[in-house]
Amino acid sequence: MSEHGESIGRDELDGLFARFFGDRPKMGCALAVSGGSDSIALLVLLAEWIGQVGRSFDAFTVLTVDHRLRPESAAEAQAVARQASALGLRHVTLPWEGEKPRTGLQAAARAARYRLMAEYARAHDIGLIFTAHTEDDQAETLLMRLARGSGLDGLSAMAPIAPLQDGESLLIARPLLEVSKARLQATLRRRDIGWIEDPSNASPVFERVRLRAAKVALENLGLTPGMLSLSARRLRRARSALDRWVADVLDPAAGMVEAHPCGFFSIDRGRLDGLPDEIVARVLIHTIAAAGGAGEPVPLAGVDAILADLSSTQSGAWTLARARLAATPDRLLIEREPGREALPVLLLAPGDTAVWDGRFSVSAGRGIEGTVEVRGLGVDGMRELRTRINVPPGLPVASLRAAPSFWRGDQLLAVPSLGFRASADLTRLTATFLPLAVRSGAGR
């Protein structure tokens, strides 16, 4: 790579962008461009590369999210639109409507930005969104996570390409992760292209701004963006290795972790205790997240406390993130915590599919007559079910009561997790436990 502040040359463009298109030559793409120096540089460089390799400009759309946090935001989005048009690219402004939060504004704005872009991408057959994250962003993220006491997952670098969410096909591409902000700004100056300076980038209210103010002191200690980014990439490599190991442990073929269709896990305690603590912790994070269905990161401190208890006790019970863990000398049961939160009630029309309680994909296929209600089986439902089928013995009662069941009024139609349907024409009522569609998410 060239010197830190040297403009990016045309001979470097293929190295930045070609890798994202090898096995997806015709994929629709979007560019996230706010108008700041990083994203404008992304816009300019990618447009140059498109022309250089002869790709179609029609496959690319520039997206600008107007957060409507400042009076100038609409005009800034229009400026980006003009720049995109001059480069031959289509532009769309996505407004963030509604009231804005009083606290956590930057995090809320980021969430809104990705939500709006993802909604547009899914509606317009776009599979790849380019963002302008830089080497400086990698370094700042690492320092911010260190300040929070994050572990390996939190300290790992952003990946050059990754799904927007686990298990989904929409990808985020970050071609500039090894490029400094200084080089991007030098690139724009050489081309006599300006950019927008967001005043919030100078406000010490925000953590990233405070880190930037300490940049000289950090670099004097050797903590340069380049070295911090290198550490983050090496940590990501280690994280990938651990994720592979955990996936092998969770694989049903391994016989250590059983994910039951009713939404609980049964784990061989003897084999689990033989694993390194870090792997056990990650297995706990995955299973707690799936069994609890809270949809939020599992608190790492809580996992560490449970891990410490498991190392010193043969039996016990714990609750965390809407999940209950119960240990015996032989097994570890992880299930939805009973009574923590009321189980949801969901209406499905024929053809509908939804996620119920954060744990199950439920659907009412076409051909089902009328709307059906999905709710927890509960005590009364369990009592009725026992009059209709022989419920397998030995299953945890709390998990059975928390399993999804289909109703029409007071009539129990189906409990798919236990193989019950009131009639043969109800096979299109389905409920699938989602143990694999979870993130570790605890910032380990």
Instruction: Describe the main β-sheet briefly.
Output: 6 strands, mixed
Globally, the shape reads globular
Q: Briefly note the CATH topology name of the largest domain.
A: Rossmann fold
Q: Which whole number gives the mean pLDDT?
A: 90
Q: Any low-confidence stretches, pLDDT <50, length ≥5?
A: 436-444
Oligomer: single chain
CATH architecture of the largest domain: 3-Layer(aba) Sandwich
How is the largest sheet built, in terms of strand order? 3-2-1-4-6-5
The N- to C-terminal Cα distance equals 32 Å
User: What is the domain tally?
Assistant: 3
How do the strands and helices of this protein lay out in sequence?
Layout: H1 13-17, E1 28-32, H2 37-53, E2 60-66, H3 73-86, E3 90-95, H4 105-123, E4 126-130, H5 135-147, H6 152-155, E5 161-163, E6 171-173, H7 181-190, H8 207-213, H9 215-220, H10 225-250, E7 257-259, E8 265-268, H11 269-273, H12 277-292, H13 300-312, E9 316-320, E10 323-327, E11 331-336, E12 346-348, E13 353-356, E14 360-364, E15 372-376, H14 378-388, H15 397-401, E16 404-408, E17 411-415, E18 420-421, E19 429-433
Parallel strand pairs: 1-2, 1-4, 2-3, 4-6
Antiparallel strand pairs: 5-6, 7-8, 8-11, 9-10, 10-11, 12-15, 13-14, 14-19, 15-16, 16-17, 17-18
Helix pairs in contact: 2-7, 5-8, 5-10, 10-12, 12-13
